[in-house]
Amino acid sequence: MSGLIAVQQIIGLITSALIMLIIIQFVIGLLFAFNVVNTSNQFLMQVYESINRLLEPVLRPIRNLMPNTGAIDFSPLVLIILLQIIGIVLNSVIRSAAF
Predict the structure, then answer these.
(1) Higher pLDDT, 8 or 2
(2) Contact 80, 19 (CB under 8 A)
């Protein structure tokens, strides 16, 4: 039973980390888009590119399935919703298996 709780906590931690990376990517992208921060800022540009490299393999299939909405990319929002759904389902499965 404690093994299942540990798995649940690890999955929750990974999910939270991915959601934080998505939000950080979104905020940095907004800062660049509205010229709050210049793209010549090497630190932010490297952080943004690193996060893009991590998330692109997950976001690309979602982008391929979604219709083209122009300048607005809804794939990060869809990924956050999917991660939340997966977390809820796994929590339910682990709780039902534990009792």
Answers:
(1) 8
(2) yes
Pairs from 82-85 (Cβ < 8 Å, separation ≥ 24): 83/15, 83/18, 83/19, 84/15
- Mean pLDDT over 3-15 rounds to 87
Instruction: With beta carbons less than 8 A apart as the criterion, state whether 78 and 62 touch.
Output: yes
33-50 pLDDT per residue, tens: 888 999 899 999 999 999
**60-69 LR contacts (CB < 8 Å, sep 24+):** none
pTM for the model stands at: 0.84
Q: What is the span of the domain harbouring residue 55? A: 2-98
Short-list 88, 89, 79, CA closest to 19: 79
